[in-house]
């Protein structure tokens, strides 16, 4: 918990108009960004309880101070080959509104990277790859320095019901 | 001293709702023209309390409206007016209207007063009042900054003390209004032999210079106007040094009182004390500005329940002290024994405490039942049917949350019984029945469940009609042969209730499938039994609480699941010789004279690494919806009470799982939903309650 | 500390009156109806009694009449809480021995102001 409070405070001080803060993480060499306001905390990987007949990217559920929180492997969610979890593997706990319901979920990513302020205008710049499989999850692509960051739409990434229906 | 009245709002709302419930049920008991005094009194008191409270707490819309009700009831109470059916109906409508008003206020919304105003006009018509009598508003005279001097003569009658009034305090009060000069007269004092110590013989004259008006002075003497001679008059003009002038005038007079009386005869200021109510405008503002939007609900808990909790916490503290004492000692064999004893004690204390905490949430089902007399009255009037409602087992206790959720399905079932179950009086007479139909609500405990029955003595379900409708809706085939019970079950299927049968009473676009689904969401079940011409009975079974469940922990591969203890019939090792294979892949165990289909939990939940050989595993025989199945698990672990947590809240519904819990070591464990599991296993024939195996098992036999 | 007995069948009014008086430094005992109040009043003395009029079991007027007849309550201030529609109740109450009345609706400040007339 302390991490994200620290981050938020730090960020709100340096925040400028029309800029949003993004927490970025690494996965398979790519850098992805999440709206930092959605981030609740960052935890290490811990054993989960498997959920029967869940899609492979749902690793299971953990007990987060008395609440049952599902853990999603973002690599598998994006169809990227999974790697074994190591000491750097982190779970980013996010709170997202999905279909009018506020849900708390954990995302397994390779490692947490950085925090950036990105202007709204820039973040809206979405290249047209809506027809690609993962394109629907992307809110925008931005360049930060010489790096490219993929901004994710958590509401879509974590809308499990839609994906499952589609899969049949 | 300022006191935030909003802290009393919740209690006020709660008691008002209770009062309205009482009004409603008493009104329903009334037979116009035959009303007895106590019933009217109870109704009056409820209205009166709501009026008093709402006025005090600043809910003027409610107090204004309740005022007309109270006036009418007061007249009835005093015998000035006889109560008619029209009055009763109007009063019942007002109860509803007040509920709506109070709910809006409770939610801190602006209440819609349209209905209240309409009803009030009707009451005023009956009462013959033209204007709306609201709380007597005092024209708060804008404080006159100019000062006046009053002469006040105050001669208490001897009995004044016996009214509990104390002249000294009044004089003190008077002094707070401004500058005061006092003259006391003791001329009326009798001789010492005749002096009664509890009588008042003194009298006073005051000259008070104040910026307050005369009313403020009158208010001080308001209570004693009949117990004393009081004359209040203004002396001289504004700004004159009145006291002195007055003093000269009344210089050393003996018959002070008489004289002043004469004076005051010609005085233009009448010494009339009026009764005044000041509406608390301030408090209504507070109500509006109150921010807390979430309505907190509360339960009333009997003091005995709280006392026993306190006792238990006391025991817990003692145990804790004992354990920490042991912890400080050196570890020897005897301390370990003591530790074990202490832990056993702790387990005992915790369990007791838990049970008693749960008891706090338990309320008698009469809270739900109580809304039905009104419902039945209204609907039967609308349908022109004569109905008697019987309520049994009203004291049966149930968890508050379950209670709140079961109310709507019950309303639906009762509406259904009235609309479709009971016949019209003519039809009933033709069928040789009492023209008055009966609907019975019955509640009782059975095991860890509460059972609620909704019975009617109507015509019963029309199996022919249901069957043909089910065929028309494609739920069953023309050639399907179904027993009467199976046909009755069809009414719970989604897609059975169709638009053309939606009526004002039971339709509302909600079908029995929704009723069943809602009840199942509470881990409950509903079934129907019906006999043509005799009636129907809907039976609802519900767990007593939603929060806690007695569970059997089982192991499948490396996974731990929880099976609700209530569903478990027995657990056994499989006698492999009694197992037969049916069809392609279904194993059936012959257990005594039953055939139990074996459900392999690892298969259904898709887990690898579980024991697959039947003779090395354990079978947990469970029962759900009257069907027994055996659940194959690797091992049985402990039995324990678990606190039910939602998996759905942050994830989604998982077939075969009803929820989750957190085990002692902090890990999550999932709770198996037996009826969901049976569905998932594909054992059930679609559209029926029958298990496939029952047919196939018979073939084997 | 002065002791006051507050009698009302409505929990919210009882709480409001009780809370107000306690905050003003009185020792308050609460009762739900006249008969409960009467039995409490017989067991211990009070410096004042404030009672609602309309109550189940025993109403406020009866309570006041009963109390006034007790030797210990001969001079005790007995106040009734009444509504503006109950004008005749005031007369009835006075006849029964009430010291005075407090008109509903009232707020805590008014309650304390009125009380100062009979108890300090």
TrEMBL record, chain C:
Keywords: Phosphoprotein
InterPro entries per record: Bact_response_regulator, CheY-like_superfamily, Sig_transdc_resp-reg_receiver
SUPFAM superfamilies: CheY-like
A GO BP entry: phosphorelay signal transduction system
UniProt cross-references to Pfam families, sorted A to Z: Response_reg (PF00072)
Source organism, top-level taxon: Bacteria
The protein's name in its UniProt record: Response regulator
Protein's organism: Pseudoalteromonas byunsanensis
């Amino acid at each position: 918990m302390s991490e994200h409070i620290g981050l938020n405070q730090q960020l709100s001080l340096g925040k400028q108009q029309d800029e949003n803060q993004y927490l970025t993480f690494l996965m398979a060499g790519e850098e992805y960004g999440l709206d930092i306001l959605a981030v609740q905390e960052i935890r290490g990987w811990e054993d989960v309880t498997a959920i029967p007949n869940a899609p492979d990217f749902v690793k299971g559920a953990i007990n987060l101070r008395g609440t049952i929180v599902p853990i999603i492997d973002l690599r598998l969610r994006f169809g990227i080959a999974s790697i074994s979890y190591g000491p750097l593997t982190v779970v980013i706990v996010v709170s997202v509104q999905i279909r009018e319901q506020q849900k708390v979920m954990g995302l397994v990513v390779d490692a947490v990277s950085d925090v950036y302020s990105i202007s709204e205008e820039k973040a809206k710049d979405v290249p047209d790859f809506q027809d690609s499989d993962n394109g629907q999850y992307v809110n925008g692509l931005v360049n930060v320095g010489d790096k490219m960051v993929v901004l994710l739409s958590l509401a879509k990434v974590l809308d499990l019901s839609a994906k499952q229906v589609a899969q049949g | 001293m300022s006191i935030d009245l909003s802290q009393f709002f919740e209690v006020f709302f709660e008691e008002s709702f209770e009062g309205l419930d009482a009004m409603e049920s008493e009104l329903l008991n009334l037979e116009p023209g035959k009303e007895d005094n106590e019933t009217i009194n109870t109704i009056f008191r409820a209205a009166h309390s709501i009026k008093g409270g709402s006025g005090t707490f600043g809910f003027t819309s409610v107090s204004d409206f309740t005022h007309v009700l109270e006036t009418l009831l007061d007249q009835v109470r005093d015998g000035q007016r006889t109560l008619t059916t029209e009055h009763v109906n109007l009063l019942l409508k007002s109860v509803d209207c007040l509920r709506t008003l109070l709910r809006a206020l409770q939610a801190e919304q602006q209440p819609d007063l349209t209905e209240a105003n309409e009803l009030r006009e009707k009451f005023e018509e009956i009462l013959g009042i033209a204007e709306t009598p609201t709380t007597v508003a005092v024209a708060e005279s804008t404080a006159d900054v100019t000062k006046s001097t009053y002469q006040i003569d105050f001669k208490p009658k001897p009995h004044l003390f016996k009214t509990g009034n104390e002249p000294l305090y009044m004089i003190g009060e008077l002094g707070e209004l401004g500058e005061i000069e006092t003259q006391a007269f003791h001329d009326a004092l009798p001789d010492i032999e005749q002096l009664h110590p509890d009588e008042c013989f003194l009298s006073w004259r005051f000259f008070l210079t104040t910026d307050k008006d005369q009313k403020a002075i009158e208010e001080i003497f308001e209570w004693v106007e009949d117990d004393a001679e009081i004359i209040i008059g203004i002396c001289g003009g504004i700004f004159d040094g009145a006291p002195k002038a007055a003093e000269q005038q009344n210089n050393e007079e003996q018959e002070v009182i008489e004289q002043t009386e004469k004076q005051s005869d010609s005085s233009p200021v009448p010494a009339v004390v009026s009764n005044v109510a000041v509406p608390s405008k301030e408090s209504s503002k507070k109500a509006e500005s109150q921010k807390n939007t979430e309505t907190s609900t509360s339960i009333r808990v009997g003091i005995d329940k709280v006392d026993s909790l306190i006792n238990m916490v006391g025991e817990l503290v003692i145990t804790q002290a004992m354990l920490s004492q042991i912890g400080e000692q050196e570890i020897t064999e005897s301390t370990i024994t003591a530790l074990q004893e202490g832990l056993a004690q702790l387990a005992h204390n915790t369990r007791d405490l838990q049970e008693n905490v749960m008891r706090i949430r338990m309320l008698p089902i009469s809270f739900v039942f109580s809304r039905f007399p009104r419902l039945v009255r209204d609907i039967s009037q609308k349908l022109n049917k004569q109905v008697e409602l019987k309520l049994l087992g009203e004291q049966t206790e149930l968890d508050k949350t379950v209670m709140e959720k079961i109310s709507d399905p019950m309303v639906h079932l009762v509406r259904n019984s009235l609309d479709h179950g009971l016949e019209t009086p003519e039809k009933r007479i033709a069928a040789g029945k009492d023209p008055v139909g009966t609907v019975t609500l019955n509640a009782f405990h059975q095991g860890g469940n509460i059972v609620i029955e909704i019975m009617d003595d109507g015509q019963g379900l029309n199996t022919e009609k249901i069957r043909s409708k089910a065929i028309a809706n494609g739920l069953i085939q023309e050639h399907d042969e179904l027993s009467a019970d199976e046909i009755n079950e069809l009414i719970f299927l989604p897609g059975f209730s169709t638009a053309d049968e939606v009526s004002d009473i039971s339709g509302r676009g909600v079908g029995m499938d929704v009723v069943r689904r809602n009840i199942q969401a509470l881990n409950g079940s509903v079934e129907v039994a019906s006999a043509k011409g005799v009636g129907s009975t809907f039976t609802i079974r519900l767990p007593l609480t939603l929060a806690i469940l007695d569970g059997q922990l089982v192991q499948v591969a490396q996974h731990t699941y929880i099976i609700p203890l209530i569903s478990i019939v027995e657990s056994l090792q499989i006698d492999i010789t009694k197992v037969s294979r049916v069809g392609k892949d279904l194993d059936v165990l012959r257990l005594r004279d039953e055939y139990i289909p074996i459900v392999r939990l690892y298969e259904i939940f898709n887990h690898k690494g579980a024991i697959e050989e039947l003779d090395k595993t354990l079978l947990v025989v469970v029962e759900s919806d009257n069907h027994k199945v055996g659940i194959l698990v690797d091992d049985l672990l402990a039995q324990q009470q678990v606190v039910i947590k939602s998996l759905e809240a942050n994830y989604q519904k998982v077939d075969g799982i009803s929820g989750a819990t957190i085990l002692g070591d902090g890990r999550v464990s999932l709770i198996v939903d037996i009826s969901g599991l049976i569905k998932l296993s594909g054992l059930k024939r679609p559209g029926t309650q029958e298990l496939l195996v029952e047919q196939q098992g018979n073939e084997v036999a | 500390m002065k002791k006051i007995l507050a009698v009302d069948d409505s929990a919210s009014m009882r709480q409001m009156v009780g809370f107000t008086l306690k905050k003003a430094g009185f020792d308050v005992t609460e009762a739900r109806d006249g008969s409960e109040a009467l039995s409490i009043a017989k067991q211990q003395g009070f410096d004042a009694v404030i009672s609602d009029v309309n109550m189940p079991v025993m109403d406020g007027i009866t309570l006041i009449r009963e109390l006034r007849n007790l030797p210990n309550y001969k001079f005790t201030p007995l106040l009734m809480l009444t509504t503006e529609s109950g004008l005749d109740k005031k007369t009835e109450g006075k006849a029964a021995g009430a010291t005075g009345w407090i008109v509903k609706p009232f707020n805590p400040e008014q309650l304390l102001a009125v009380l100062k007339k009979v108890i300090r």
